[in-house]
Amino acid sequence: MPEALRAHFEARAGDRAGLLGVFLCQASRLPELITELIKVKPKQPLPLSLIIDTGLGGVPKAISIVESRSELLSLRMVEMPAPSDVDEVWLERVSEFVPEDVIRVVEPRRGVGWLDGVRKVIEHGSWPKIRCGGVSSENFPSIDEVADFLAVLSGADAASFKATNSLHRAVRHDDPETGIEHHGFLNLLVAVARSLSGGDVRDALSSTDGQQLADEARGLSEQAAKAVRASFASYASASFAEPLADLEALGLL
């Protein structure tokens, strides 16, 4: 926790602070976070996304803890995995527990019928989350699965989503240690642009040509760029330096 906070505040004070979003913390580690923040004494409350790892029933208590420490924490987002069957009752409880001014992010579990879960999450006013990687190859969705997810998003009016895991590099690549092919966040951004305009989404997701992807992203009109960022609203990365280095190398900053 001390190391994560130190890295976050260093990035927040740096020249590229505008790229940095919220600090992610599991509900189970809130006491640890608060203890460290008391030592740090931040000038501004830390913008926080609360990752619910204590079950839906633990949400009210976790939010209450955050709100009781408003001098240290500013709750911006609450993220949680959905049950295998995402139903209206469960989604209603999410809405009841999370304040209206806080973004709700719900991750439907990939598998049979998962796109129906994505639709339900959108219809309920939450952001669906897509997990793009993890510790094993099973955690990595196929190009077709990502494309299908984006098709649901583009079919929903003004829907936003969040992506997470293994997206610290801009362009699709093979991990030399595991041999697993990773999705790139720039691929995802260009794929969203094409999804919104009726272009070839799968081609964008599969491309390893960083310069071509960068040129296409740079060529978006202001209106198209705003639409893309409204849809692809956030992604989580375990590293700040790696995505920054890739963006600088591709001339996208």
How would you portray this structure in words?
The chain is an alpha/beta fold and 253 residues long. It has helices at residues 2-12, 30-40, 59-67, 88-97, 114-123, 143-155, 185-197, 201-206, 210-218, 222-231, 241-249; strands at residues 23-26, 46-51, 73-81, 103-107, 127-131, 161-164, 173-174, 181-182, 232-235. It is built from eleven helices and nine strands. Strand 2 (46-51), helix 3 and strand 3 form a beta-alpha-beta unit. The mean pLDDT is 95.
List the helices and strands and how they pair.
Elements: H1 2-12, E1 23-26, H2 30-40, E2 46-51, H3 59-67, E3 73-81, H4 88-97, E4 103-107, H5 114-123, E5 127-131, H6 143-155, E6 161-164, E7 173-174, E8 181-182, H7 185-197, H8 201-206, H9 210-218, H10 222-231, E9 232-235, H11 241-249
Helix pairs in contact: 5-6, 6-7, 7-9, 7-10
